[in-house]
Design brief:
single chain, about 350 residues, alpha+beta, 12 helices
Length: about 350
């Protein structure tokens, strides 16, 4: 992604190279006219799976919407879901916007912004890619714990993203939820950072669908789930599937970040062990290059909701799956298997036609 200012500074050879790249991307995207996965195919995958589906699935590129599938009581294309850890990708985007605005730097020590005492120096970068090793202080102490020397390994941390929200609150002198809502308004995203009980959140956003939990294969409506301001940073944002698609497209097509920040976000600075195998992790994004297919992703699981977003830059294809049931974690394959099968079907199509 390049800015208009950069274009002015490019040499003739660089301009030609950029033009050739743009034509290549356009050509690849055009080739997706052969992309054949449909809502009927998705329905077949769901019918053959070991559990039902209630939620929304969207698969699209810049030119076509191949799948716009909804199922379940009260689920419509405009339904709002809790995003779970997809919220982390949005938080990472807001942090990198602050970097672009010179309000902070990735190498800054987090103690420059938050009142906490760490065993080792920890940078904002290490919070973003889950390599800080930090654990929360035990109240009333300000002394945070440490799992390992920062940057030595990966350990997924909701608390690390809570601290990123605290840093942004300090930098902008505004509550983090307000920053998210401003980002949504500025970019016309159907995204909210509402807090409170289920009833309070549904009063603010009537399209927020009920969440369900499952225990011993019994699905029951979630009746007690309060979202506090800290939870917004790493799991509590709410959006429609169309909003997530629009956010993903905007992120990867240069609308939100400078080229430098986007490069940092989408290049692996650590490795994560995942059910898909070993994947890279940048800033709020997983990065896979298996079978020569570049894939950026994040998923989420919170009480009442499961989510997955995928983006394939070679074809500019976006996949978003939002569910309003958190299936029983006693059987991980049953919980995530449906998402994985849809992902596999998409990847099969892309590796066939790219």
């Amino acid at each position: 992604m390049i800015t208009s200012q950069w274009c002015k500074d490019l040499t003739g050879l660089q301009k030609f190279t950029r033009l050739l790249l743009a034509l290549t991307v356009t050509s690849v995207s055009f080739q997706l006219s052969a992309f054949a996965l449909t809502a009927a195919d998705v329905q077949t995958i769901i019918d053959k799976d070991s559990r039902p589906f209630s939620g929304s699935i969207v698969i699209s590129d810049n030119h076509n919407r191949y799948v716009n599938y909804q199922a379940g009581t009260g689920i419509t294309p405009d339904s709002i879901f809790m995003l779970g850890s997809i919220s982390k990708t949005i938080t990472a985007t807001l942090v990198l916007q602050a970097v672009d605005q010179k309000k902070l730097a990735l190498g800054d020590n987090i103690t420059d912004y938050v009142e906490i005492i760490t065993e080792h120096p920890i940078t904002i970068s290490q919070l973003l890619n889950h390599t800080s090793g930090i654990t929360p202080p035990k109240s009333p102490s300000l002394n945070a714990g440490s799992q390992f020397i920062p940057a030595s390994q990966f350990s997924y941390s909701n608390y690390g993203y809570k601290l990123l929200g605290d840093i942004l609150t300090q930098v902008y002198q505004q509550p983090y939820g307000q920053l998210v809502n401003q980002f949504a308004v500025t970019n016309q995203l159907d995204l909210q950072a509402n807090t409170g009980s289920i009833a309070q959140r549904q009063a603010k956003q009537t399209r927020l669908v009920d969440g369900y939990t499952e225990q011993q294969q019994q699905r029951t409506q979630l009746t007690d789930f309060t979202v506090d301001p800290d939870f917004i940073t790493f799991g509590g944002m709410q959006a429609s599937s169309a909003a997530v698609v629009k956010f993903v497209n905007g992120l990867h097509q240069g609308q939100f970040l400078s080229a430098t920040s986007y490069h940092a976000m989408t290049h692996a600075s650590t490795i994560r062990q995942h059910r898909w195998g070993e994947v890279g992790y940048g800033y709020g994004l997983q990065i896979s290059q298996q079978a020569g297919l570049v894939e950026y992703s994040h998923s989420g699981y919170i009480p009442g909701y499961i989510s997955l977003m995928l983006y394939y830059p070679q074809s500019q294809l976006t996949v978003v799956i939002l569910e309003n049931t958190s299936w029983d974690l006693d059987n991980i394959e049953r919980v995530f298997g449906l998402h994985d099968k849809i992902r596999q079907a998409v990847r099969k199509q892309l590796t066939t036609y790219e």
